[in-house]
Each structure stands twice: as structure tokens, then as C-alpha cells.
Automatic annotation (TrEMBL):
Identification of the protein by name: Pur operon repressor
Similarity-based family: Belongs to the purine/pyrimidine phosphoribosyltransferase family. PurR subfamily.
Keywords: DNA-binding, Transcription, Transcription regulation
Residues in Phosphoribosyltransferase domain copies: 107-242
NCBIfam families for the chain: purR_Bsub
Molecular function GO labels: DNA binding
GO biological process: negative regulation of DNA-templated transcription; negative regulation of purine nucleobase metabolic process
Pfam families: Pribosyltran (PF00156), PuR_N (PF09182)
Origin superkingdom: Bacteria
Keyword Nucleus: no
Keyword Transcription regulation: yes
Bacterial purine repressor N-terminal domain boundaries: 4-73
Subunit annotation: Homodimer.
Length: 276
């Protein structure tokens, strides 16, 4: 079958979007479309220009016999502001208020379209950080972790509160919850990670940062390095010193008035260089 250029461009774009951060040899496209490498290079130049113009991402060309092309997802500032604005609008509904100043977010975390957009934002922020894995604590952080991992093309590591027989041998640590000051436990299978990996930590909500600090301590047990902290919502009303300093958040919960049923939200530090 002889592919037309328009057909190649559509199929090539879909393949690149489905395989982010993956080096794809030009011979793959050349064989798939029965086309010369020179034609494939011209097609990729068109895709590259379109991606960069729309802020979708960038294509990196690696020269040499073992080279190829790699798609790096990105997001323009305008798109990021739109996504964060849509999320804040959905989150500001007074019906989401829970006792203690917390917000109901389960339905938003279960929205695959929204999570995919948010995952791309975090992936864009950490695109050059050489991330090897995404770590989160079961259960609410899992959708965010998988969304980020999908755009960085890395595995997800889920930390649990208790050991499961299907996990095999595990490593457990005790840590102090930042908000309640209670001693809690984190458990992770020994087969989950390899020594020396750079790991992005993520969760849906952060107050003092005890959970994030606990995950950092758990990484040390595996001789792994935290490469960043990505938080969906952070609380501004923190009475104690925050245990995590360097993090990136999309939304900051500034104030909750349970009596008047109002929620005050502002943008997090996503656009701030280096985060907090």
C-alpha cells in the first residue's frame, strides 16, 4: 500500500502522541509507509513545525545510525492557564465542602479527560528532569500519577499503608503525618524500584507535607533520588512549618468558610520558576 503524504502525516502524528519520550528510528516510519527517509524527514519537519506553533510539544532529532526522533509533550502558558482555570472553576463549587475544610475531589480525579490534561501540564513542567518513575500513595493520588506517567512514558509506583501478600517482600517505614501529628506507616514492594532512579512524587492534596516527606524517606531506603514534587491542590492555611519546600502546585486553597459556604482558590506556583 502506497501512503499519501496527508495519510502519513495523520498516522505519524497519532503514533508520536501515543509514544512520548520514546526514541523512534526513522526506519520505523520508512518501513511502515514504504517511503524514503528523505520523505519521512520532510513529513517530520511539518509535524515539528505544527507542534511548536500550537505549543503541543517539540520533536527532537537524534542523528546517527542509532538515532531517530523523539516527541516531548509540552503546554503553552495560555493552555496551562485555561486548564488550571477550568479546574479551579469546578473546584470552587460550594457543594464540594467537607468538614474540616477539605474539598470533595473524587469525581474530578475520576474524570479521564481532565486528568489527562493535568497530567500533561505536570509532564511539561518536568520534561527535562530525567524522571524514571512516578510515586504516589494509594488511593487518591493514583489517577494523577498515571496521567503524568502517560505523558512522561515512565512507570507508576504506588505506596500503600499496609502490606499485601501479592506484593512479595516489602520495605516499610514509619513517618509523622504533618497535619494530625500521628505516626503512620508506608509500605513498598522491594521489586517496585531500582537503585539510583529519579522519582517524581505526587499527590492530590498537600497541607503540611508529611506524606511527601514520608515518601522522600522511603526513597532513601531504595537509594533513589526525589526529582520533584507535584501537587494538585495545596492548602495555604498551614499553622505549622511546611515539611516540603520545593514543590509545584496547580491550585492553592486559600480559605474555606463553612458557615458561609464559600471557597477561595488562587493559582498555585506552577508558573513560578523553580516552584516553591
Amino acid at each position: 500500500m502506497k501512503w499519501k503524504r496527508s495519510e502519513r502525516l495523520v498516522d505519524m502524528t497519532q503514533y508520536l502522541l501515543a509514544h512520548p519520550h520514546t526514541l523512534i528510528p526513522l526506519t520505523h516510519f520508512s518501513s511502515a509507509y514504504d517511503a524514503a527517509k528523505s520523505s519521512i524527514s520532510e513529513d517530520l519537519a511539518i509535524v515539528k513545525g505544527t507542534f511548536e506553533e500550537r505549543g503541543t510539544g517539540r520533536l527532537i532529532t537524534v542523528p546517527g545510525a542509532a538515532g531517530g526522533v523523539k516527541y516531548i509533550p509540552d503546554a503553552s502558558r495560555e493552555e496551562a492557564q485555561e486548564i488550571i482555570g477550568d479546574f479551579m472553576e469546578a473546584l470552587s463549587d460550594p457543594g464540594r465542602l467537607l468538614p474540616g475544610g477539605y474539598l470533595f475531589m473524587t469525581d474530578l480525579l475520576g474524570n479521564p479527560g481532565l486528568m489527562d490534561r493535568i497530567g500533561r501540564l505536570f509532564a511539561a513542567r518536568y520534561k527535562d528532569s530525567d524522571i524514571d518513575a512516578i510515586m504516589t500513595v494509594a488511593t487518591k493520588g493514583i489517577p494523577i500519577a498515571h496521567a503524568i506517567a502517560r505523558h512522561l512514558n515512565v512507570p507508576v509506583v504506588v505506596v500503600r499503608r499496609d502490606s499485601k501478600v501479592t506484593e512479595g517482600s516489602t520495605v516499610s517505614i514509619n513517618y509523622v503525618s504533618g497535619s494530625s501529628r500521628r505516626i503512620q506507616t508506608m509500605v513498598l514492594s522491594k521489586r517496585s524500584m531500582q537503585s539510583g532512579q529519579r522519582v517524581l512524587l505526587t499527590d492530590d492534596f498537600m497541607k503540611v507535607g508529611g506524606t511527601m516527606n514520608g515518601m522522600k524517606n522511603l526513597l532513601a531506603e531504595f537509594d533513589c533520588e526525589p526529582a520533584g514534587v507535584a501537587v494538585l491542590v495545596e492548602s495555604e492555611d498551614v499553622q505549622e512549618e511546611r515539611l516540603v519546600e520545593d514543590y509545584v502546585s496547580l491550585v492553592r486553597l486559600r480559605q474555606v468558610n463553612e458557615k458561609e459556604r464559600t471557597i477561595e482558590l488562587v493559582e498555585g506556583n506552577y508558573f513560578r520558576e523553580g516552584g516553591n
